[in-house]
Amino acid sequence: MKEEFSKRISDFSKTLKQNGIDVALIMQNTDLYYFSGTVPSGALAISDSNDVVYAIRRGFLRAEKETAIPTDSLFQIKGLSQLPKLLHDRGIKINRVGVEMDVVPADMFLKLKDIFKDSEIVDISFHIRWQRAKKSPYEIEKMQEAARMLDCTMEDAKELIRAGKREIEVSAELEFRARKRGHQGRSRMRGFNGEVFMGHVHSGYRSAYPSGFLKPTAGIGPHPSYPEGASFEKIEENSPVIVDFLANYQGYLSDETRLFVVGSLPKELEKAYYFCKDMLTWLEEVVKPGMAAEDVYNQCLSMAKKAGYEDNFMGIKGNQTPFVGHGIGLELDEFPFIAKGQKYALEENMTFAFEPKVAFDGVGAVGIENVYLLTKEGAKPFNRYPRDIIYL
Amino acid sequence: MKEEFSKRISDFSKTLKQNGIDVALIMQNTDLYYFSGTVPSGALAISDSNDVVYAIRRGFLRAEKETAIPTDSLFQIKGLSQLPKLLHDRGIKINRVGVEMDVVPADMFLKLKDIFKDSEIVDISFHIRWQRAKKSPYEIEKMQEAARMLDCTMEDAKELIRAGKREIEVSAELEFRARKRGHQGRSRMRGFNGEVFMGHVHSGYRSAYPSGFLKPTAGIGPHPSYPEGASFEKIEENSPVIVDFLANYQGYLSDETRLFVVGSLPKELEKAYYFCKDMLTWLEEVVKPGMAAEDVYNQCLSMAKKAGYEDNFMGIKGNQTPFVGHGIGLELDEFPFIAKGQKYALEENMTFAFEPKVAFDGVGAVGIENVYLLTKEGAKPFNRYPRDIIYL
Predict the structure, then answer these.
(1) Of A137, A229, A355, B160, which residue has the fewest beta carbons closer than 10 angstroms?
(2) A180: nearest Cα among B87, B34, B166
């Protein structure tokens, strides 16, 4: 365990060195956990020479009990203004200081600029996210367990979905069983305004309802103040029911979608579903490390156009999302994004959710989703639940 | 409904005028919902002359269906760089532009500074939060319903808590029943790294375990990656069990804590509990609009010292939180904070949770919490569940 965390720090330290950054200040919960094994608030300073200082404002006693960072690197501080002296006394240079500028709020950033007034502040978000995109064997094991838990959720859904039941009743019971299985409850997203609960159960026209976020099929949700997931409406016969759920095992997420139907499905929707399912097979046969993320997306988009789903792929017309997958791990919105404009190449040990979906305005949506590990041989699914439509 | 939202906008417009701010750009989910009734991402511009422009990047179709903003104020944009022209064409000045600098990330802030390069950017966080602290009759009604739901959760806890049951089993079933009652699931916090699930069930020494966040009794949680709430450990006889839960009704929160015991409680803990309970009575008898928030806190602190709880009040020694209450509404961490250094006076129609707690290292914690509405006559509790220790 200690080796896992010290390798994360030393790898990142090398990245800092390569980029001429003296020290990184890690302040966001997920990143703090990733590098230290605990999340008490403060700043975890990682230097380009592999030294580390965890300056803790709140929760020192907790950090002491949990962290993988050596005790002589833990410091209680009253405020961030103590950081320059603390780093100086440790022999850490602060000419170029890295900050997670994608998550640190503007007012805190300005305060840091003031505290480090003779330093150049640079953004280290990409470097952190790029390292976190590639998973270690330790992380892959956690994600395997999350996927296994989530397969059980799909089996639960098979048992629970009935015509006449409210979407929220099914969702609540899936959540309940998942929690008893050890689901941590809260899952993290990184992007500004990014939010998610435990997953979505939605059906009929609600699955194709336009989302206010960057999500292809999000459902109506209980109320405009939380506009996604299950509504209070009832599941109907002969109409698609989407279960798009998360699992969270020790911080690591899995994300899986399956399609359920009470009765039978209109042929048009069935055809669209098998188009999505075939896209998973295509992914598994074709995608290898070295392919650009946007190339994968563009090929999916071409397939959708060719199949006549130009106005339905990844959402209804006017609400389509320009992606077909997203990296996943400690956060739901990690690199790589299998999306428009993502020019970087996919690398070995990246993990991502792949979720082709097709939506028909006023009717419903269909789709499937698994989380994948990219290996030398190709994309290997973590999730193992059978892929056909589940007729009830 | 439309009147509710247009009053929120016109009130805020007056604040902008008073502070010499030409236009506010509202971008955060909660604030977007508060002013528009929907959350599709983009920027809601409110001018000092009560004009409004909702520039939507994502989810225009959703916004159209849900928002209280007039249709001729809705615009589809591709990026924030279109904002200056859009505002100019509308006749809105942009010399001083307000931004939610407490939540907008640094990189987005720098982008906005670049887009509005001839404008002065100022922080409007406080103005928004101060307005939102005082609730309208519409909001008070929602908070009443949330409190009613939460009283049912306490009744559920009475039925569910048993010695030998795991904390997470009890928590999962409370969550399940709350969800079926219409709890929205996800609840919002505003502060950087602020996070919360549906509530906490913890017992014995775990209730006094040091928190890494600014929370007095948070529990160990399932894992260091999400270090609060229920653990997988079992509830024991003759040991305090804390149920500190949230309800969320149409975006509005309630927050309530009650103490349960299977068997009997050591006299020392029982005494500490009734000290906390008496503090609620004190609040209800003494606190009125016009009192400074920090004075309320300081008086509580004095009472705690006098009673011998100097090292136990609001957490164990070394992990004590310098507050005894927090504003609540659409977010869990609103104004007013009944806390150290909060010099402003409490005002009529403010709503806050008041949560005196006493913790004993290695033993357990006790405490009670209600949400209050401050009226001319004093603090009126929303939550009605009986206040004595619930012996099972």
Answers:
(1) A137
(2) B166
